[in-house]
């Protein structure tokens, strides 16, 4: 017991230190308790985003100009994490940010829960967005639940230096001419990996499969929301992507994983499907790597990948302020700036014509005229895949099925059957 | 009380003795008002003292468990709330789900990989510490260092070390000419990686427990062994090990309870966006399945059914625990 | 076996201690380099000069101070609550005679093994009902008492307080509560400190329930770390700088009270 008693004095010391620390932290943080009106009448509006929205400077700009409403950004990693959090807190009835960003693919599911969100319909904002984008955020009763931020027209990002190593053309116009169809793109890849065996052709099978899915009319569900995953188009995507694995075209890494991130620094792959918002990701992950370029082409025609919306959950305390902030953030001028910051291509009609977009180029991508390219890519989009309320959940299962083949844990057929079973289990 | 990994960690105690009857207190002979009050005081105070605990424990500990059973026999969606009574339908769906058995096996496998080597190393370590070391306290503190690192932090650090392609461990294997091990995709390899995290965090802690048990071994046993001509190793095998065996059994059984709930380590080790424990749930555990059903597939009914089955499983182990304790109590001696 | 140990013993122990410390050093090492360096498999073995930059980025990415404050608050409050309620109950079980004490104590011991964290579904429904999800009280409440605490305090108090002393106090006309307060509570202090320490660490490292209950803008340290790790750019210099930062508070606690933690674990093992 002697030992114990002696050590109690240390314990008391520890207690004292901790109490002091506690008080220090509590007083330091007393101010930013978040939520509604602080003592001085300022309202803090929290904006939860995932990935990169390019809002950092916009928020500083707003906060510098406004004393009554301050914006605070809450950043989460991937959409999957944001989604789990979103549903949990929707169910709990509290805990969401004043503004929640939603991935475009999940909008049909969100529309099904429209009651939990504020109707953002505003006559003044009619015509702000491209029609097909606005439609995605509007429910059958004509209520607009979300303000669109960006769209994701896809081009091809590529490593000109690695192309050179493989004896392929490096000029972006020439490169664009070589990959008009998927077959051409894959054939070029096989050629490439023969010459540069340590480098894969594209970043991940999952990313590629999603790019291909974006050209399928009804990937998972029919127009009346019946789940129909056992369809030939989907199977074709699955077979093509899994078939490429043995040819060495894929890095065989899960997209967004550590190794995937590291592969940007280690010459892991030469090309990837790049929606506008991906440009910021590439630039961030490949920081310091030279040789990236962006080609005005997408195999198999155009494709749109992602694009997000800002919603205002009805459970929030600052609904009016949040609405105001959401409208401001998604205004053409702001989205043009977000584009400059992270490459998120605006979904606002007016922004598309603004010189900030059309004249934009990106030094990291060898001064590629990314504004012009993405505008061309947006025009090339002919198919808007039908996405029902279960799209987002099924997509997650589909990606896991690709990954199982990719990482070698299953044969394609086994994995496909498991995917069908997984979808069944979604209930 | 759990010991191995996961999210809760209470210190491990060795076999508790079953309460003996407390000393008798004074019973007043003549019932005056004052004495009556005092008698009531003596009689009811104990209940007053234990009731806050039992009330709170009932509300935050027992009620949720009972209510889990209630939820598990209903359709109960995360957003929609309570639905119809469906009997054992949720249980059937969970058991029929191939991931259930797979994740159950994973859970047990990770547990075995994390407890067996851990006990061996911890006992060895304790034997090393059970010497007249210089800087005894310093050594004891040093081996406990990993214990202050949270499982989440442990998972992040080791997740990096176990990177499939560019992680330190695989780079080192490459240097000595061994092929990279797919830590995140091979089922067994991923279990080893996760067990390593658990072992790293808990081995020192367990070593201290074994050390305490070793120090309680009567020294004269060693002396007589020495007289019989037994060397150090022999003494360790024939005196120390048998004497600390009860502690060992207890450590293993209680660590089961913790190990079966492991969540933080495998979840943070997972790099697929779904975070269900690998593309094919190579290292998904039962607690992760509870999370998946409840908060990713948004079905609280199936989540509750899964939780309840895990609960029953753990109760079986707990019963085992209790029986072992009773038995050890009768063996007596060593740990008292 | 009390013998003067040789080189081998020290060598093996040192190897183990180095193994224990190495991952922490690794965390700091990568946290002190730039993202590019951290993305290589094997970085330089000496720390780089970017730890503060990375730490600053951590603060920009997740609400670190808030998470730290929450973790300290939640852990301290629950630890205090556990110590108070469990000392009270533990004292009753150790020193007072009352009908049902034995079965109730057996019940406490049996429930020590009950995985209360599996009650997450009802906890979640309850907290939602009360509108507490999102507030840190949702994390405090499930931890207010632990069966382990009662058991631990009982085991300690059985021996620590002589029955004669209690008897004497009662003879002097002390009421039960005064006996508890003036005799038992002071005697319970060493064990209470250990229980406090253990509970604090336990709650500090908890992850499953806070992950469900807390929002991204009001996390505990563990939830914030999870947020950092699931980042869009898996930038390990950032993530490991955050991990290092998040470990510092408990390291401080360990340095101050590590000796006590050691004796607590060993006391817990021997008593019983």
Can you describe what's shown?
- Chain A is an alpha/beta fold and 427 residues long.
- Helix content of chain A is 48%, strand content 12%.
- Chain A contains 19 helices and 11 strands.
- In chain A, strands 2-1-3-10-4 form a 5-stranded mixed sheet. In chain A, strands 7-8-6-9 form a 4-stranded mixed sheet.
- The longest helix of chain A has 28 residues, at 2-29.
- Chain B contains 12 helices and 2 strands; from the N terminus they run H-E-E-H-H-H-H-H-H-H-H-H-H-H.
- Chain B has a two-stranded antiparallel sheet.
- In chain B, strand 1 and strand 2 (81-85) form a beta hairpin.
- The two termini of chain B are 21 Å apart.
- Chain C has 272 residues and is mostly helical.
- The radius of gyration of chain C is 23 Å and the shape is globular.
- The interface between B and C is large, with 131 and 122 residues.
Largest sheet of chain C: none
Rounded mean pLDDT of chain B is: 84
Low-confidence stretches of chain C: none
Structural class of chain B: mainly alpha
DSSP summary: helix tally of chain B? 12
Residues in β-strands, percent of chain C = under 5%
The shape of chain C is: globular
How many beta-strand segments of chain B? 2
Task: Please tell me what the overall shape of chain B is.
Answer: flat
The counted number of beta strands of chain C is 0
Q: Major beta sheet of chain B, specifics?
A: 2 strands, antiparallel
Distance between the termini of chain B: 21 Å
Biggest sheet strand line-up of chain B: 1-2
Oligomeric state of the chains? heterotrimer
Mean of residue pLDDT of chain C?
A: 87
Helix content of chain C: over 70%
Radius of gyration of chain B equals 25 Å
Order of helices and strands of chain B: HEEHHHHHHHHHHH
Number of helices of chain C: 13
Can you give keywords for this protein?
heterotrimer, A: 427 residues, alpha/beta, D-Maltodextrin-Binding Protein, domain 2, 2 domains, 19 helices, 11 strands, C: 272 residues, mainly alpha, 75% helix
């Amino acid at each position: 017991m002697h030992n114990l008693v002696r050590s109690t004095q240390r314990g008391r010391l520890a207690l004292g230190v901790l109490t002091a620390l506690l008080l220090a932290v509590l007083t330091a943080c007393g101010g930013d308790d978040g939520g509604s009106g602080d003592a001085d009448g300022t309202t803090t509006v929290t904006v939860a985003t995932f990935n990169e929205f390019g809002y950092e400077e916009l928020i500083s700009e707003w906060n510098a100009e406004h004393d009554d409403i301050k914006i605070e950004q809450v950043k989460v990693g991937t959409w999957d994490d944001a989604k789990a959090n979103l549903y949990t807190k929707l169910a709990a009835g509290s805990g969401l940010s004043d503004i929640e960003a939603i991935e475009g693919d999940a909008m049909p599911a969100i529309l099904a829960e429209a009651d939990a969100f504020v109707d953002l319909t505003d006559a003044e904002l009619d015509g702000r967005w491209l029609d097909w984008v606005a439609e995605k955020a509007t429910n059958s009763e004509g209520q607009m639940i979300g303000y669109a931020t960006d769209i994701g027209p896809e081009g091809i990002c590529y490593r000109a230096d690695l192309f050179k190593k493989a004896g392929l053309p490096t000029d972006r116009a020439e490169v664009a001419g070589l990959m008009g169809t998927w077959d051409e793109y894959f054939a070029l890849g096989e050629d490439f990996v023969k010459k540069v065996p340590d480098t894969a052709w594209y970043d991940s099978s999952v990313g590629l499969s999603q790019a291909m899915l974006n050209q399928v009319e009804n990937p998972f569900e029919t127009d009346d929301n019946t789940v129909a995953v056992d369809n030939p188009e989907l199977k074709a995507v699955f077979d093509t992507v899994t078939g490429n694995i043995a040819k060495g075209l894929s890095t065989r890494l899960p997209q967004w994983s550590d190794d995937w991130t590291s592969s940007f620094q280690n010459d892991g792959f030469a090309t990837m499907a790049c929606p506008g918002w991906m440009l910021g990701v590439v630039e961030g992950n490949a920081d310091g790597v030279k040789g990236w370029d962006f080609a005005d082409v997408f195999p198999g025609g155009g494709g749109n990948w992602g694009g997000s919306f800002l919603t205002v959950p009805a459970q929030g305390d600052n609904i009016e302020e949040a609405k105001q902030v959401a409208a401001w953030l998604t205004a053409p001028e702001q989205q043009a700036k977000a584009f400059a910051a992270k490459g998120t291509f605006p979904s606002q009609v007016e922004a598309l014509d603004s010189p900030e977009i059309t004249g934009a180029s990106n030094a990291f991508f060898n001064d590629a005229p990314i504004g012009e390219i993405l505008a061309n890519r947006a025009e090339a989009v002919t198919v808007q895949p039908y996405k029902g309320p279960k799209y987002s959940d099924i997509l997650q299962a589909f990606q896991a099925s690709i990954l199982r083949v990719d990482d070698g844990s299953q044969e394609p057929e086994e994995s496909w059957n498991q995917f069908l079973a997984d979808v069944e289990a979604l209930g | 009380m759990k010991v191995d990994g996961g999210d809760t960690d209470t210190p491990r105690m060795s076999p508790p003795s079953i309460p003996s009857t407390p000393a008798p207190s004074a019973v007043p002979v003549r019932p005056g008002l004052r004495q009556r009050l005092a008698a009531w005081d003596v009689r009811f105070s104990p209940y007053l003292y234990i009731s806050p605990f039992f009330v709170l424990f009932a509300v935050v500990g027992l009620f949720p468990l009972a209510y889990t059973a209630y939820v598990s026999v209903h359709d109960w969606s995360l957003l929609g709330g309570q639905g119809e009574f469906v009997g054992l339908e949720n249980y059937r769906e969970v058991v029929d789900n191939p991931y259930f058995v797979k994740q159950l096996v994973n859970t047990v496998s990770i547990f075995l990989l994390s407890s067996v080597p851990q006990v061996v190393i911890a006992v060895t370590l304790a034997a090393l510490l059970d010497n007249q070391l210089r800087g005894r306290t310093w050594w004891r503190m040093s081996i406990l260092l990993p214990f202050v690192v949270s499982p989440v932090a442990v998972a992040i650090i080791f997740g990096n070390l176990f990177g499939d392609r560019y992680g330190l461990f695989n780079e080192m294997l490459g240097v000595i000419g061994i092929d990279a091990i797919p830590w995140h995709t091979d089922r067994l390899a991923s279990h080893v990686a996760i067990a390593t995290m658990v072992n790293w965090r808990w081995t020192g802690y367990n070593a201290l427990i074994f050390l305490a048990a070793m120090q309680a071994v009567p020294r004269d046993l060693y002396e007589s062994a020495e007289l019989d001509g037994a060397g150090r190793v022999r003494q360790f095998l024939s005196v120390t090990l048998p004497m600390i065996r009860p502690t060992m059994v207890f450590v293993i059984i209680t660590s089961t309870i913790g190990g079966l709930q492991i969540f933080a380590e495998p979840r943070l080790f997972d790099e697929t966006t779904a975070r269900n424990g690998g593309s094919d749930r190579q290292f998904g555990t039962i607690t992760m399945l509870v999370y998946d059903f409840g908060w990713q597939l948004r079905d609280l009914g199936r989540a509750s059914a899964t939780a309840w089955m895990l609960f029953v499983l753990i109760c079986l182990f707990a019963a085992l625990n209790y029986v072992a304790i009773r038995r050890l109590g009768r063996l007596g001696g060593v740990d008292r | 076996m009390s013998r003067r140990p040789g080189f081998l013993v020290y060598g093996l122990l040192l190897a183990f201690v180095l193994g224990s410390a190495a991952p922490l050093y690794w965390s700091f090492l990568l946290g002190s380099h730039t993202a590019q360096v951290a993305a290589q498999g094997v970085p330089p073995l000496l720390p780089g000069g970017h730890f503060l930059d990375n730490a600053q980025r951590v603060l920009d990415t997740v609400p670190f101070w808030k998470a730290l404050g929450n973790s300290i608050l939640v852990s301290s409050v629950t630890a205090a609550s556990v110590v108070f309620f469990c000392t009270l109950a533990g004292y009753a079980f150790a020193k007072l005679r009352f009908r049902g004490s034995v079965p109730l104590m057996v019940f406490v011991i049996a429930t020590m093994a009950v995985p209360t964290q599996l009650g997450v579904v009802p906890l979640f429904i309850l907290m939602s009902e009360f509108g507490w999800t999102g507030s840190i009280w949702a994390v405090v409440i499930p931890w207010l008492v632990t069966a382990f605490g009662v058991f631990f305090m009982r085991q300690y108090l059985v021996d620590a307080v002589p029955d004669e002393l209690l008897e004497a106090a009662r003879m002097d006309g002390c009421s039960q509560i005064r006996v508890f307060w003036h005799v038992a509570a002071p005697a319970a202090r060493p064990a209470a400190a250990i229980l406090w320490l253990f509970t604090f660490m336990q709650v500090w490292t908890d992850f499953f329930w806070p992950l469900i209950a807390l929002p991204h803008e009001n996390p505990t340290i563990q939830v914030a770390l999870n947020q950092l790790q699931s980042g869009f750019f898996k930038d390990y210099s950032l993530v490991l700088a955050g991990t290092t930062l998040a470990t510092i508070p408990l390291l401080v606690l360990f340095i101050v009270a590590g000796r006590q933690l050691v004796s607590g674990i060993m006391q817990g093992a021997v008593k019983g």
